[in-house]
Amino acid sequence: MILGGSYLEAGDEGRHTVQAGDALVHRAFESHLDFFSARGADVLIIPMPFAARLPVRGRVRDVDALARMAERSPACAWTAFAEAFEADGSGHDDWPDLLARKLREQPDTHLGEWAEATGLRAESISRGFCRAYGISPKAYRAQVRARAAWEAICGSSLALGRLATELGFADQAHMTRAVKSLTGHRPQAWRMAADA
Question: Has this prediction a pTM greater than 0.85?
Fold first, then answer.
């Protein structure tokens, strides 16, 4: 939650310019890059329960009350935050964001074909996307795919090999490496934890 100032965040869920009263919700293992101006920003981080689901971006009207509550009880602050949160679907919408959205929705998107369809050069896409998000489109896609795999492993009982195929990995070993790189644990450990 932003208490004062503003900044631009680019991450797994797109780019967002935020200011006082805005809030961004980050799920486990999401990554992002923040671009702060010289003025900076005051940000309050409220831990959220593991299974909590809120939209990525929203607003909270009384940030001062939530900040005071967070000093006393982060758990109570989360409850109050979730109740006061008003979803706001706005964000950036230029070509790096359109590509990021496409890669989140369809990770098997061929970058060369996307570049051609949008009238951009493949080299320009890689440089421009990296400037906007801090990583290449291929690395972004790999992160998105690994996080989708982790969520599917924890939320389904589908065999890991079949899950790997459905999510576009070359094989189960490929998915295992991606999930372990993202989370520090192998899919089997996450599956056992989810079943417990």
Answer: no
